[in-house]
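FAQ: What does a ligand-bound record look like?

Like this one, built around flavin mononucleotide:
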Amino acid sequence: MVHEDIQSTLSSDNATPSNLAKPFYIGEVYVNPPVILAPMADVTNGAFRRICAKIGKPGLLCTEQISTMALHHASERTRKMFDWTDAEKPLSVQLFGSDPAIMAEAARISEERGANILDINMGCWVPKVCRQGAGAALLRDHSLAIRVVKAVVKAVKVPVTVKMRAGWSQDLLNTPELAKELEQLGVRAFTLHARTAQQGFNGEADWSLIRHIKDAVDTPVIGNGDIRLPQDARRMMLETGCDGVMVGRAAIGNPWILKDIAHYLAVGELLPPPSVSERKQAALEHVRDLAELYGEERAVRHLRAQLPRYFRGLPGAVHMRMDVMTALTISRIEEILDNVLPCSRTRDDETGEDGYPVFQAANSFADRGSSSGSH
Ligand SMILES: Cc1cc2nc3c(=O)[nH]c(=O)nc-3n(C[C@H](O)[C@H](O)[C@H](O)COP(=O)(O)O)c2cc1C
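The answer part, i.e. the structure of the complex:
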């Protein structure tokens, strides 16, 4: 059901910012602020989560999805995903799979290793995952989804959550019904990425679908999909009544967005953008931390696409991106970053190739309002 305070907010449309910044609980886990770093494969590893925790201070951080089958077969690569530290709390560990016993086993291992929340992936649409009956394929097989959730809930004491797409396809938007059933089994929160599995990342997220699931369940609902600016997060909360917001792509190379959103929800003002030296420091910290786990060359290669995002919109950023593509060592990265010019203000009219805004000066941010009025 829609919370009374949110309901009155919606009907009067005079939300005080602090209403929207209200923390919430997932089981015993306090999510404060109600801003969450999304699970992203090959992105939200320990190094990135730690940078996000330090700079963005979200109320919850998620691991990338972990294959329970690979864990069962003791894959070294998968074991390396258990790379969290006390700096990343509270932490939600996301599991994918379709075998209830193997999911339960992975849930127990994750809990023993300190997971605060276990999240079941019912949103991944990539064929490799769905062919195994896992991820969003579970949205097409409710009886299997139910067995998986029952097994995981029974296996652990920490709260279990589910992250889902709005349905398999436009003809099968059955998430609210499924969520109602899963809530009865003990699921303590739902995240909705407001696209169907068939959509992949195409088109825009349809936030009205978040509203539908919010109306169907009593447990907290976290809204997700296409939050690019703090104003988007506010609008999503107002339009859907969701309890929290989850941010994915906009946080890559921009961990500041998480605290910007929390601040905007709390006080209705935008923070100034990070300085060039803050960006350099964050990018270097990110790659150095990853090198601890992956080794230097692999870490540098892995972050070739991500490091330039810390500098989007700055003079010289395009050149820098080309240089980073050939770097193999951290000292070469340092050399390249030393050539990024310091400046007090970034261009505010640039949009990245994926449609995500580059860093913007606070004034232009405020003038512009929302990044898109089309939701
Ligand atoms: C590179 C990448 C990897 C992702 N990996 C996962 C994943 O492991 N588990 C998951 O549930 N969603 C995954 N997602 C989806 C995101 O969690 C999120 O639902 C989606 O990006 C929409 O949010 P956004 O518009 O804020 O990016 C991934 C998205 C991206 C861009």
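Follow-up question: can I read anything off the structure? Yes, for example: The chain has 17 helices and eleven strands.
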